[in-house]
């Protein structure tokens, strides 16, 4: 087959691979928000020590970045869905450069002479700068994920999206390593590296990150028929669906009434309504050409052809909230999204699991210091920082691995096992529960890496899987906007669990004037009035809460997977009896390819 000018590039063309690698580079620069709290010479503990921040204040500053990441997600998603990735990448450049340079300014200024704490105005400025780093990073990540999801077919979507998101998880480890190797102990210079190192990739992405249309041979087949070609996702025109019915009872001149949209609960009833006729049907989609005339299909035999617009095929029964797309996925947004039980199910699971992950990530430095300080009269600041760095590296690396791994598992579950990807949600929730139980059982800093590894893996799997589930449940046309609304969940869960953790830790700290919340400037544990010295008891209560939350998420995940599996099994049973009814398949019915 000869390609013609303007035809979409091949699946593994230079343009498509360049977009993938540029998206990965942008993603690597977008996840530095997590560098704040748990890197060896990263600025979180050092900033809190220099500015005399309490544990609660430290969590507020860290969460300001998280709010920037998740709170702006719906609006950023709407922009990238409607205007493309370039506006957000330009915004990311400005926000990241300004945010990290602002934090550097406050760090260099320190606490005013004669004062014991920074002013309220300075603290608010610090929070605003953290917020800027969050919105800049999320702008880059949203652009990278959107372009990647639209540039690869469904069979590879979870894998490539997981690969790109893995850069977000590896970002903290990458920049922390740079800080340790190139600028050991120089926090000010490290903040300058963050400002430059995160903003430049946004400019590179501005020129290379964009959706690449899929070649027609790679479009998902709606019903598995070899002659069916999915509507171009980047075309606004509606294709024409032609259906050939081999039915001797078809009237020559009588117009058949259009069938309403049939969901999986109505397919079998429709089959029984066929009066016992075995109907053979071949449906195929002719992609639209703007300005072209809609012509009748060529007859290959004596069968009767009838054409129906996609609007007729997608017409739904009253009250049914889904607007079907011809790739077999729904096309849901706005009011239909927030009125969907699927959205609230996904939102609840994401809030419970991501809140657990953010709580640990934001406080793993404090956890490692609490374990190291218990019963240790010879506290060594450098050794404490090394143990903290171990947790950083472990969480960041396993976070990256989890995002890649869950993409491969999810695609294999669907493509090879013929099961819904939502079954993988239970695996993610179980990994979270195991991580919390492991951290709870650890009573020495030497063993904390086990809990950090499991938590990082689970957290990576969560954000590697849920974007693809969002596409399957709500469709691709408004994916970034929908994922943005789902992404509000971590902001809620992270705020609740992280602030509760900070208050719990402060409640176990020795009474005394607020000095600092880390050992960065302390010679011994007794010199820090805000350091809990009780080891695991400092945070055990918080772990009980998160374990219960993850158990609830597991129950919801089991329900979601069971429901989708039952729906898929019912669909397959019906299609064995009436293959022609697949033309009206519902969400997730592309699994039968």
* Mean pLDDT level: 76
In DSSP terms, counting alpha (H) and pi (I) runs of 4 or more, how many helices?
19
Poorly predicted runs are 37-41, 220-323, 512-529, 583-593
| Fold-level CATH name of the largest domain | Growth Hormone, Chain: A
- Elements, N to C (H/E): HHHHHHHHHEHEEHHHHHHHHH
- Whole-Å distance between the termini? 24 Å
Number of strands: 3
Number of domains: 2
- Class from helix and strand fractions: mainly alpha
- What fraction strand? under 5%
Describe, in plain words, how this protein is organized in 3D.
The chain has 593 residues and is mainly alpha-helical. It has helices spanning 14-30, 35-38, 43-51, 55-71, 73-83, 86-109, 120-151, 154-182, 187-208, 267-272, 310-314, 334-338, 341-373, 381-415, 424-441, 448-474, 479-486, 488-508, 540-577, and strands spanning 240-245, 281-286, 304-309. Strands 2-1-3 form a 3-stranded antiparallel beta sheet. The longest helix is centred in the last third of the chain and has 38 residues, at 540-577. It starts with 13 loop residues before the first helix and ends in a 16-residue tail after the last helix. It is found in: Membrane.
Q: Which key features would you list for this structure?
A:
MFS_trans_sf, three-stranded antiparallel beta sheet, globular, 19 helices, 2 domains, single chain, Growth Hormone, Chain: A, 593 residues, transmembrane transporter activity, MFS
Summarize the structure.
Its main location: membrane. The chain is mainly α. 61% of the residues lie in helices and 3% in strands.
């Amino acid at each position: 087959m000869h390609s013609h000018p303007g035809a979409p590039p091949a699946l593994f063309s230079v343009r498509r691979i360049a977009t993938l690698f540029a998206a990965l580079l942008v993603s690597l620069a977008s996840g530095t928000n997590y560098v704040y709290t748990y890197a060896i010479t990263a600025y979180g503990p050092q900033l809190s020590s220099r500015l005399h921040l309490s544990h609660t204040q430290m969590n507020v500053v860290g969460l300001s970045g998280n709010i920037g990441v998740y709170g702006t997600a719906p609006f950023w998603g709407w922009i990238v869905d409607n205007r493309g990735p370039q506006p957000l990448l330009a915004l990311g450049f400005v926000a990241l450069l300004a945010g990290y340079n602002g934090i550097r300014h406050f760090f260099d200024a320190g606490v005013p002479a004669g004062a014991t704490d920074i002013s309220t105005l300075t603290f608010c400025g610090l929070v605003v700068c953290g917020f800027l780093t969050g919105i800049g990073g999320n702008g880059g990540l949203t652009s990278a994920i959107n372009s990647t999801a639209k540039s690869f077919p469904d069979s590879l979507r979870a894998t490539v999206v997981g690969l790109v998101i893995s850069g977000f998880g590896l970002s903290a480890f990458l920049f922390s390593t740079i800080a340790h190797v190139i600028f050991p102990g120089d926090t000010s210079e490290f903040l300058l590296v963050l400002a430059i190192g995160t903003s430049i990739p946004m400019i590179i992405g501005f020129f290379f990150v964009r959706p690449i249309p899929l070649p027609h041979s790679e479009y998902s087949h709606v019903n598995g028929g070899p002659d069916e070609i999915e509507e171009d996702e980047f075309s606004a025109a509606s294709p024409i669906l032609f259906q050939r019915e081999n039915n001797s009872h078809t009237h020559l001149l009588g117009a058949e009434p259009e069938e309403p949209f049939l969901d999986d609960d109505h397919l079998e009833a429709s089959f029984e309504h066929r009066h016992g006729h075995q109907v053979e049907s071949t449906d195929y989609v002719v992609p639209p050409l703007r300005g072209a005339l809609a012509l009748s299909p060529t007859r290959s035999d004596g069968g009767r052809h009838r054409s129906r617009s996609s609007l007729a095929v997608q017409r739904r029964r009253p009250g049914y909230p889904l607007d079907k797309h011809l790739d077999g996925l729904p096309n849901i947004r706005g009011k239909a999204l927030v009125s969907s039980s699927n959205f609230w199910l996904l939102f609840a699971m994401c809030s419970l699991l991501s809140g657990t992950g953010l709580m640990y990530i934001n406080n793993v430095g404090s956890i490692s210091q609490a374990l190291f300080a218990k019963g240790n009269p010879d506290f060594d600041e450098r050794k404490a920082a090394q143990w903290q760095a171990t947790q950083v590296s472990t969480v960041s690396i396993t976070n990256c691995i989890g995002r890649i791994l869950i993409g491969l598992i999810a695609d294999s579950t669907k493509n090879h096992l013929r099961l819904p990807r939502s079954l993988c949600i239970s695996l993610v929730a179980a990994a979270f529960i195991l991580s919390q139980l492991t951290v709870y059982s650890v009573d020495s800093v030497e063993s904390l890496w086990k809990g950090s590894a499991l938590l990082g893996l689970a957290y990576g799997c969560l954000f590697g899987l849920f974007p693809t589930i969002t596409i399957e449940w709500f469709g691709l046309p408004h994916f970034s906007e929908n994922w943005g609304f789902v992404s509000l969940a971590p902001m809620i869960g992270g705020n609740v669990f992280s602030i509760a953790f900070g208050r719990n830790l402060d409640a176990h700290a020795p009474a005394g004037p607020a000095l600092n919340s880390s050992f960065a400037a302390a010679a011994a544990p007794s010199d820090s009035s805000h350091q809990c010295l009780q080891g695991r008891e400092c945070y055990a209560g918080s772990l009980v809460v998160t374990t219960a939350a993850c158990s609830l998420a597991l129950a919801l995940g089991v329900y979601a997977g069971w429901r989708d599996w039952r729906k898929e099994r019912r669909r397959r049973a019906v299609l064995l009896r009436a293959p022609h009814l697949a033309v009206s398949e519902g969400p997730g019915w592309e699994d039968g390819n």
